[in-house]
């Protein structure tokens, strides 16, 4: 079955996704605040009708046989085209896709078509649906039946977007057939109606004979164009009051998909088109919906006044208001129609007890203003906010809303959808979203969300192994773990979202894989210093004497560093063009203390430190005649590794893995000290 969602991943994510969606490809994830829809536009039916006279139709091209070996899933892509024109109150968009079914696999995929659409913003008309067999066109549109149904894929996360899926099964499809269909979508925004944005990848990860894009736009409104790793120029023609921009990419060489890329590195050569060069135009479209002067319910206002009475410092007021909104307003996103893009009033959110990111951001910003703290909502992207720094202005760039608070010269970024976030102003961890656009009148600009520099490990695991003093006694293991900053926030959430028993079982299984027979001595204990943003846990285990002696475990006793080496990406480097993304800053420490030994043990004579511009790994050890201690440290220095250095990075990663586990014969006893 050919899924339109899959095709859209390849065709620059053409469909408009709701604000709560999270894109799964790097092709171009700029699709959340798409077109702000009017409920009166709601249309859940797939219509049938002829294409408009403004749409030009090209002949089917031939695929380049040089790329036949790179055809995937039995589908040879022939045409992908998109034509757009401005219309009163919105746009009209025509898209066409044609492909040949080359084998049985393609028959399974190509005989059915499905695509998603938002009934609140879009009216969809299928213009043609043809099978071309041996040069003969067979019209399947008259008899086609479109099943339209709703799938809420993220309902368990509290996300409801109202999008519909249209599905049609094409009758009597055979290997060798060409499927050719085109549809027109009329979209009617109510916010940013004069703002236009579109992006197109001019090469795919598989062969395509022709990628064609056309934009018909008023000649007195010049379009802004940005090219990313492509030199394809538009053919521009002026006809009266209209100007037509056309791009063609003929049989482009397939691009090898790459994993672990930073969000600001687009895998595919891309062209961006925007009707504005100013982010202020985007903000001006949003400002009417983010008024911070709305009245707050009396009971909630009283809570804020109580905060003001108890805390004189604006930094403390900010933290208390943040916790009030984060902890008492649960997250639910009813993102259907206007609810996809326009926040509900603070009074409505408080009365219902729930809200999504934009609801909670507006409520928090309003609360901070009441407390005398300068604050405004800010638009960002959960996964791809780092790409916002380079892209052309568009409402479609965002899928999340946070809050920017300013106290004197200090800026604080707060995600009101976080739950049980710790810290005070001096150690508050900002969300790692890259860039954000504050919704502020007159001076809007894309701003970088600075990361918090790590000066100490955010996770410190200390394992104390007490070997038995007498024959027949069990080995005792005590594990103390200290979480700080972002790791403390994550652990705090785990402690409340999972049962203590489940966590304890997971940890016990971890130690049983290394030391078979390990049993738990006490329930997992946890202590939370929320203001300091420090969470500590303690685990207690024992390993019976028979298990310590089994399979010579005592003679091959492993000490293993769990500092996140496995979290460092290890992608294929063959033909790679993009950098490796290392992610958010990481600093971890793992300590092993072994006591009650009958000999003095030492670590390697030669240092096995790994120091690169991107990641650092160190091991330090010390010993006494009866005790041995080793500490491993891992810290990321940069957030990416350039393509030219991937080979040395992968060698360093392997070296780190080799030196993150040491094995000793702790049963050895010496009569005299060394």
Automatic annotation (TrEMBL):
Pfam families: DUF3857
Domain DUF3857: 91-255
Protein name per UniProt: DUF3857 domain-containing protein
Organism listed in the record: Rhizobium loti (Mesorhizobium loti)
